[in-house]
Write a structure and sequence with these properties.
Keywords: Membrane, Transmembrane, Transmembrane helix. By secondary structure, this protein is mainly α. 86% of the residues lie in helices and 0% in strands. Helix 3 crosses helix 5. The two termini are 54 Å apart.
C-alpha cells in the first residue's frame, strides 16, 4: 500500500494536480449520485403516486356529481355529510385542476 501511495506522489506538479482534481471530481460525482438516489427513494416511499392522487380526484368528482344529482328534499340528501365535506372537496378539486393545468402547460 505504501508503494502505491509513494507512486502517486511521484511525477511533475502538473500530473499530481491533475490526479487530485480527478479524484475530487470523482468523489463529488459519487456523493451527488448517492444523495440523489437516497432522496428519490425516500420521496417515493413517503409521497403517494401521481396516479393515486389523480384517481382520488376523479373519485371525488364522481361523488360530487352524485351528490348534486340527488334531490335536496330526499332523505338520502339529508343524511349525506356533503355539507361537512363540501368545502374540503372543493379545495381538493381546485388543487387538482391547477395541477392538471400546470401539467398541460409544461
Amino acid at each position: 500500500m505504501l508503494k502505491i501511495l509513494r507512486k502517486l506522489n511521484e511525477g511533475s506538479l502538473l500530473q499530481r494536480t491533475m490526479m487530485h482534481i480527478a479524484v475530487l471530481v470523482a468523489g463529488s460525482a459519487s456523493v451527488v449520485a448517492l444523495t440523489s438516489v437516497l432522496l428519490v427513494s425516500t420521496a417515493r416511499t413517503v409521497l403517494p403516486r401521481h396516479d393515486a392522487t389523480e384517481g382520488g380526484a376523479d373519485k371525488a368528482d364522481e361523488e360530487q356529481s352524485a351528490d348534486s344529482d340527488a334531490d335536496p328534499s330526499s332523505s338520502e340528501a339529508a343524511a349525506s355529510p356533503a355539507g361537512a365535506r363540501g368545502a374540503p372537496k372543493a379545495l381538493a378539486q381546485a388543487r387538482m385542476a391547477s395541477r392538471r393545468e400546470s401539467a398541460v402547460a409544461r
